């Protein structure tokens, strides 16, 4: 085993965290799911999505793209006039009775400027801001989780102008735990851009699309819900409902198919209540026409639903066959070593639970993954390196960034804590965590000298660390270290003034 310049005695222990992570990651793979093509019991129409024994493997008849002769091309799908009016009326009626009471759907109180047009504009802007924030939060996150974040956000930044004057750090802290932090940054930058433009909230899809981070979906949602523009929205829920309504089994991720869904949604959108109609379509997908167990029995548009109609005639087909399940892209495997550096300070500096201790945090670069967010010192690894190689990489980073080496600090404890896998949308990141507890030989000089020239860093105590808005990955690392200290450090928290260091 190599020795490192920040070597401290290793504690003989079995990391429960590591065991847990290993067990989790080595769990036997689940049996593969069977195809969604199952029989439907004609007498069980209230749950046609239920799986039954597979009978045959053919795709739904005459409905799969690329099939011969009678299979319609995706371009050919459209609604008849009767279908359009039937779907609009039924969905709006259903939505008026069943729409969920969500905070971003509440309408404002009466205006108070005394000018009806000004009051209307103000209310629309307020609504647009609320829809924008909620729609961005709802991307990749469940409604129940978003409600709390949304309420806290609105309390802190009740209007676009309040948000525009916030700092990125504040916004990131508020966003902590929602993931995909680029969304938060775009919200802030968008708010700043709109306020700087001085022309109020953009009111059409065309104008909204010029704001960073606002794509077709969010623009359609804001324009239709807040400003009554007659434009469609298409998200995953809408795709599912439309695919079932028209029995389209094409890959919904394919760009030609996506375009066609937008065309179909545009055909349906109600000219008098575009915002409510769009919300009703999304609401149906979220609450009734769900991926696995659609409630067809109580569905307001079951009469128009072609997937349901086919499933009733052909017991080898279920409505959940629509849309087809696209092939998932394989996630990239990456590895990183994280070192939680705890600096003990003050009189009681050798006690590992010293209330005067604190941690080093480093700010990530302003571009790329988790841009501008705080984390413990870390390095990316080429592959699943062993403990010595990881320490070598970390030592190099700590010396380059902070000048931390044996001439300026005394390591008290250095231990491997464990590892876990953190999932990003396209990356499986295996994170190896170690704890390095040290004491500085000359605190004043360290904190003064390392003037944050090459990277931005800060020293925070554990109380501040707990209240900081950290990403879920960083919180997992901290939780693992805390657990490790609780379970393992009592055995080894004796003073280690005589630790041997490599000079
Ligand atoms: S649209 Fe209605 S009837 Fe059709 S699959 Fe969805 S829930 Fe069932």
From TrEMBL:
This is Adenine DNA glycosylase. InterPro entries: DNA_glycosylase, HhH-GPD_domain, HhH_base_excis_C, MIG/MutY, MutY_C, NUDIX_hydrolase-like_dom_sf. It is found in: Mitochondrion; Nucleus. Keywords: 4Fe-4S, DNA damage, DNA repair, Glycosidase, Hydrolase, Iron, Iron-sulfur, Metal-binding, Mitochondrion, Nucleus. GO terms for cellular component: mitochondrion; nucleus. It holds the Pfam family HhH-GPD. The keyword tRNA processing does not apply. Its cofactor is [4Fe-4S] cluster. It catalyses: Hydrolyzes free adenine bases from 7,8-dihydro-8-oxoguanine:adenine mismatched double-stranded DNA, leaving an apurinic site. Residues 13-23 have a biased composition (Polar residues). Residues 137-287 form the HhH-GPD domain. Its main location: mitochondrion. Residues 1-77, 105-125 are annotated as: Disordered. Binds 1 [4Fe-4S] cluster. CDD domains: ENDO3c (cd00056), NUDIX_DNA_Glycosylase_C-MutY (cd03431). One of its GO terms (molecular function) is oxidized purine DNA binding. PANTHER family: ADENINE DNA GLYCOSYLASE. Belongs to the Nth/MutY family. Gene3D superfamilies: Helix-hairpin-Helix base-excision DNA repair enzymes (C-terminal), Hypothetical protein, domain 2, Nucleoside Triphosphate Pyrophosphohydrolase. The keyword Transcription regulation does not apply. Adenine glycosylase active on G-A mispairs. One of its GO terms (biological process) is mismatch repair. Its EC number is 3.2.2.31.
